[in-house]
């Protein structure tokens, strides 16, 4: 059914669950699996509308996200599955959509952890919700449930 699957991976527990699900889907359908890790834009806000660019911060974060991506790729390899990986910088939704379009993906897989408080749900934007609105293909949102 699926020929090309993009996994948006951040190493979180929800991301780990999405990794397993995407591997199972790709293995079942013989699909190519592309893993993408998105580094947030390198702009720090000093207050108000003033932003400070720190080029060293971008390098440090890129290195951190490369390590996260490498761990995900290694975990897939341990499960007997090869995947291509890429670290990109920018808005998560924009970069995931752009990558899905570039590889002509049939499916995007993303992990999601439900926020417990209404304030956290209101304050933080939902990458998975935005992906559903902007994706060029189907989106599988893997819900991570914390142990009770």
Quickly list its features.
single chain, 5 helices, 148 residues, 5-stranded parallel beta sheet, two-stranded antiparallel sheet, Rossmann fold, globular, alpha/beta, 45% helix
Describe this structure in words.
The protein contains five helices and seven strands. With 148 residues, it is of the alpha/beta class. It has a five-stranded parallel sheet with strand order 5-2-1-6-7, with helices on both faces. Strands 3-4 form a two-stranded antiparallel ribbon. Helix 3 crosses helix 5 (127-134). Residues 118-123 have low confidence and may be disordered.
| Domain count | 1
Total strand segments = 7
Overall body shape: globular
Radius of gyration: 16 Å
Helix content: 40-55%
CATH architecture, please?
A: 3-Layer(aba) Sandwich
In the CATH scheme, the class would be: Alpha Beta
Q: CATH homologous superfamily?
A: HUPs
Task: Report the uncertain regions.
Answer: 118-123
Break the fold down into its secondary structure elements and pairings.
Elements: E1 4-8, H1 13-29, E2 32-39, E3 43-47, E4 50-53, H2 55-78, E5 84-89, H3 92-102, E6 107-113, H4 118-123, H5 127-134, E7 138-144
Parallel strand pairs: 1-2, 1-6, 2-5, 6-7
Antiparallel strand pairs: 3-4
């Amino acid at each position: 059914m699926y020929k090309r699957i993009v996994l948006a991976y951040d190493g979180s527990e929800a991301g780990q669950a999405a990794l397993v699900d995407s591997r199972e889907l790709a293995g079942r359908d013989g699909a190519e699996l592309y893993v993408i890790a998105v580094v947030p834009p390198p702009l720090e806000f000093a207050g108000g509308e003033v932003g400070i660019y720190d080029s060293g911060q971008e390098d440090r974060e890129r290195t951190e996200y490369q390590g996260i991506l490498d761990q995900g790729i290694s975990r897939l390899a341990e499960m007997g599955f090869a995947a291509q990986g890429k670290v990109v910088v920018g808005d998560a939704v924009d970069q995931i959509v752009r990558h899905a379009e570039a590889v002509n993906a049939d499916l995007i897989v993303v992990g999601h952890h439900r926020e417990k408080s209404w304030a956290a749900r209101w304050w933080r934007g939902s990458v998975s919700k935005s992906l559903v609105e902007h994706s060029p293909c189907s989106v599988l949102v893997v819900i991570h449930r914390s142990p009770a």
